[in-house]
Target: M14 family metallocarboxypeptidase
Amino acid sequence: MNTYPIGTPGLPWGEAERAQWRAQQTQQRSYHSEVLSAIEHLATDFDVVQYGELNDEQQVLPLMALYSRPWQPALPVVLVTGGVHGYETSGVQGALQFLAQDAQRYTNKVNLLVVPCVSPWAYERIHRWNAEAIDPNRSFFEPSPAAESAALMRLIAPIRDQVMLHIDLHETTDTDESEYRPALAARDGVPFVPGSIPDGFYLVDDTEQPQPEFQAAIIRAVEKVTHIAPADEKGEIIGSAVVAKGVIQYPLTKLGLCAGLTNARYKTTTEVYPDSPSATPEQCNAAQVSAICAAIEYLLSDA
Model:
């Protein structure tokens, strides 16, 4: 029996239930002080563009992207996205840390487009969904039900076919099992089926266009920073078969995932485990940075 406190078991949520859920979400951190302030400091080295905004009840939340300078049409385009799920902190902070400490190494080698926080409303409330109880990372299709996803697709559209590498930064947390999966089951009116949370870092490759050597290169780099998630007793991670050390596969575009929004040859979704007793927030951020750098180095070595 679904015991989530909102809704009636077996019945999908309507607007009343979504409103009840939304009323329970409170701001727990500041997008302006934790993200926008960092972006302001990066403006001396990158072209900063506002590509949309979210109109929260209390404030306007600008959607921001950073482009490497100078942008050179002959160079491959690398897309880095973070914070598609706002509660996955190292995706946001890892993207910002990469821009601050490593991105300049790739000047005149690649064109970088970095969107550190796709979902600022969810970032402030430490939640997976947006204000409409919609998962942006299942909404990268036309027409998108999520304003965050639709705005990012509009931003990417002019260069969609030029992107050679897209790395989308995520986390898998213990609250996936304690809060978000039960909430999802309640929202959709289906029974909650308990699962397990993998202990460690892993990647999600594209079922339709797998790149095993690319994924392996990232795993080798990240395991110097944090541990890699092992397969469970079924040989799986979160219900998907492990195809290589720390790697599973999803049909990225078919599922409407952010990592599938371009035709990039190299795509991956990182999944950091911040609740591990052996992983600090600093390690989680460093793992994301290491993954980005390893992905770019692989692209350059294959050019």
